[in-house]
Design a protein that fits this description.
Elements (H helix, E strand, L loop, with lengths): L1 E5 L6 E6 L7 H4 L3 E6 L1 H12 L8 E4 L9 H13 L6 E7 L1 H13 L5 E6 L2 H7 L4 E6 L2 E8 L4 E5 L8 H18 L1 H9 L1 H5 L3 H21 L14 H11 L6 H18 L5 H13 L12 H8 L12 E6 L2 E5 L4 H8 L5
Parallel strand pairs: 2-9, 3-4, 3-5, 5-6, 6-9
Antiparallel strand pairs: 1-2, 7-8, 10-11
Helix pairs in contact: 3-4, 5-6, 5-9, 6-7, 6-11, 10-11, 10-13, 11-12
């Protein structure tokens, strides 16, 4: 079992990484009111095991349909309606049992219900284990932009069971690897080489290798969040590939591409933009593309998208300040920075022929 601490003063919490659902903090397990939010796919596999974590409560559950298409204000309202119907108090513990959609939505409900209740993250996808379950970003989507309606709400604990990854479809596992590779590209060339060297073991889901990989990502994210909880500076680097990726998701319709797939293509586009500025060599872009492709991830935007299809979504991206688009770009191999001088003309020059 590994423990990673997210240091946020009185809101600090632990990330527990194990090969079971063991490791829940005693105080959390003693909760009297518990509602588990999940979807039918995950609940069928793990709901009884998670309910058993709370011996002092008759843990209730509420199931939402599976998929990014249901990460909406309508789903948010449905959960709130259930809690109100059950007359849940502020002593409530909400448990997010699922991937990023369930985690983000449950956290947003926890931030709003009676002005804030506790919630526990139990992520069941690789993407949510290494990224979205840690750090307190919660949100729902809007047709005009991804994650545009939400709040910062830290969980009381993140409980990661690595064995649940065996139940993931290959496409979902691959989508999680996009976020893993993102950590390397942000600032860790050694981790990039480690991923190259352990590619086969990761694909085979070697339990020890997966635990090492997940722990490394969680430590990186915990360190960044501890220094910049509300994304005033360094935390924005975790959005590498997301400005392009969120545009792909929104333009296609949420759920057509998985989040990690869109981020993978977005990281390649960010790398190509950096290469056009001389910050990466063509060989380094190929190296990035090859590692993503090795995990069966897309390395280009949909052929039907023109760069002009990206720009409206980029202009409503959360990193926009005073009307200026801001991008996370590589400034060297496995180094990144937030850049605020990218123009529409530059985007058209770089991508006008490659994405039309």
């Amino acid at each position: 079992m590994q423990k990673v601490e997210v240091q946020l003063g009185e809101r600090s919490y632990s990330i527990t990484i194990a090969d079971s659902f063991a490791g829940i903090d005693a105080g959390i397990a003693a909760s009297k009111q518990v509602v588990i939010i999940s979807n039918p796919t995950v609940a069928a596999l793990y709901l009884p095991q998670v309910q058993a974590l709370f011996p002092d409560a008759a843990a209730q559950h509420f199931l939402l349909p599976d998929g990014e298409a249901f990460k909406t204000l309508s789903s948010f309202e449905q959960v709130l309606g259930f809690l109100l119907e059950q007359r849940m108090s502020r002593d409530l513990l909400l448990v997010a049992l699922g991937g990023g959609v369930i985690g983000d939505l449950t956290g947003f409900v926890a931030a709003c219900y009676q002005r804030g209740v506790d919630f526990l993250q139990i992520p069941t996808t690789l993407l949510s284990q290494v990224d979205s379950s840690v750090g307190g970003k919660t949100a729902v989507n809007h047709p005009l932009g991804k994650n545009m309606i939400g709040a910062f709400k830290q969980p009381v604990q993140v409980l990661i069971n690595t064995t649940v990854l065996a139940s993931l479809p290959p496409r979902e596992f691959a989508a999680g690897m996009a976020e893993v590779i993102k950590y390397a590209l942000i600032s860790d060339a050694g981790f990039f080489r480690w991923l190259q060297q352990h590619h086969a073991q990761i694909q085979q889901q070697d339990t020890a290798i997966l635990a090492e990989m997940i722990g490394h990502c969680c430590r990186m994210k915990a360190d960044i969040v501890s220094r910049d909880e509300t994304e005033q500076g360094e935390r924005a680097l975790l959005n590498l590939g997301h400005t392009f990726g969120h545009a792909i998701e929104a333009w296609l319709g949420y759920g057509e591409w998985l989040h990690g797939e869109a981020v993978a293509a977005g990281m390649v586009m960010a790398s190509e933009l950096a290469a056009s500025r001389g910050w990466l060599t063509p060989a380094e872009v190929v190296k990035i593309r090859d590692l993503l492709a090795a995990f069966s991830l897309p390395v280009a935007a949909p052929e039907s998208m023109h760069i002009n299809d990206f720009i409206p979504y980029m202009k409503t991206d959360k990193k926009v300040k005073q009307g200026t688009m801001r991008f996370v770009l590589p400034t060297a191999f496995c180094q990144t920075a937030v850049v605020d001088d990218v123009t529409e003309a530059e985007l058209t020059e770089v991508f006008g022929h490659g994405y039309n």
